[in-house]
Amino acid sequence: MQQIHHLDLYLVLNTLGNSGSSGSVYTLDEALIKLKVPAWDILEAIPYVLDASLNACAHGKISSRALSTGIKDLADFIPASLVAIASYFSAEVTRGVWKPAFMNGVDWPNPAANLSIVEQQIKKTLADTGVNVPSLDADGDSPAKLPLPLAAFVSLSITYKLDKGRGRFLVLIAPVLTAVASGCPWPCMPVLTSLWTQKVMRWSDYFVLRASGTVFQHNRDAVVQLLKSCFKSTLGFGTTSMSNDGGVGALLGHGLSFQVARGVSPVAPGILYLRVYRSIGDITFLNKEIMSILMLSVRDLVSSELSKGTIKKTRYGMQCGHVSFVRYMACAKHAALLGASLIWISGGQKLVQSLMIDTVPSWFLSANNLEHNGEQPGSLVAKLIGHALAYFVMLSAAFAWGIDHYSVPPNQRALVIGMHLEFLASILEKNKLLCCHHATWRAYVSGFLKLMVGCTPMWVQEVDVQLLKRLSQGLRRLNEDELALRLLEVGGIGVMGAAAEMIINFERRL
């Protein structure tokens, strides 16, 4: 009986499409007389009917116009069916088994009238934010194409008139439509933008902005450029007009604003990243990229001051002139906070765990990529980089697991912190020559442990006693005796003997 209902609904859908496109004598009410089933059964049968209809359209048994008109009439008769229609089209586009439909203006609507203009607007929107992606233009020699379910969905959406009675339909299907088109290969979203811009010009800015965000789903280099723009605008040495002063204001701007006369205002890089980070897909590369950009930002910060003459370059490195080391530390902390925030919102605890266990140790043990004009960074830059990394890792861990016993289960945090400290202790014991500047390593170790002792003493108390003793001995080899003693003092009862022995040794020296 259910198959009969599906067949009846398909015949009615086909009749509705033909009545709207070929002047059939059947009216809507007359056609629906054939359908003598409850509305719930109709909603249940819709996916089967749409599947049969798409297959019929794909094999030329019904026209694309008849398909779109029939679906629209069904949605007009039972508005709740729009949910099932949107869900079906979304699922079919995701499956990716349908052949593409060529948007040539014969079978399907043609976006060619303003597609190139839309893509130029997307380029400009991204360029204003500091992202330049040269390969956005579609092949102008071949007609644009969309997956068949998406083409049917788009054609359905543009058949609605923008009156008060039909506006509710667009409110329902528009978010699904843009989400589905965003996940499709380029240039599906520009095609959708072009078609809707032809229909409603005043919505052009909205669709261009949505299409600009989809670039980051298909182009990893664009994501890296956006991250760089976030750091540059925050530190105040970006190329865009909004990044001149730096700070949070330059990073986040004033949200999203539209200017009727001149289109979309430049979008702050932080706001754009907040809009697109969920759709990046594979986020495993973010740890390495954000960490690299953080270090390069610190290097560029010192280089910019050197070019202004505020730092004197000597034979043995760099000396601070009018600008104190404290100011550089403040900027490094600012950059570290931004980097930790980006890691946390992008991947949460999993990304932070990967950062501490894999990314940071791998960087210290692998090649150094901070050469500038063939030169290794000076001691000042290397020291600042080490401190910036310490704040970066500490803040990332604090975002993920909190600083007290009430944030998360302590064993979950202690496992990751312990593995990271085990890496530090093993390097300190072996006194191994790392592939980075010695000042960077020393600043990182002392900086990270100082932050643990001063800001997160509960983390220290969760660390294995033997590991604390090994870290303390390693710090003494770095001539960080005071920090080594403080680490044991915070460690608790289990390391009191080692702390007392260290105090006695100090007194003997005196």
| Main pleated-sheet profile | 2 strands, antiparallel
Series of H and E elements? HHHHHEHEHHHHHHEEHHEEHHHHHHHH
Note the overall shape: elongated
Spatial separation of the terminal alpha carbons: 97 Å
Average pLDDT confidence is 80
Quick one: how many beta strands? Answer: 6
β-sheet strand percentage: under 5%
| Helix count from the secondary structure assignment | 22
Rg, please?
A: 31 Å
In a nutshell, what does this entry contain?
With 510 residues, the protein is mainly alpha-helical. The chain has helices at 2-21, 28-32, 39-58, 64-77, 81-95, 115-128, 148-158, 167-182, 188-199, 204-218, 220-235, 247-252, 269-276, 286-308, 325-365, 379-401, 410-430, 438-455, 457-461, 465-477, 481-491, 496-509, and strands at residues 100-102, 145-147, 258-259, 263-264, 311-314, 317-320. The longest helix is centred in the last third of the chain and has 41 residues, at 325-365.
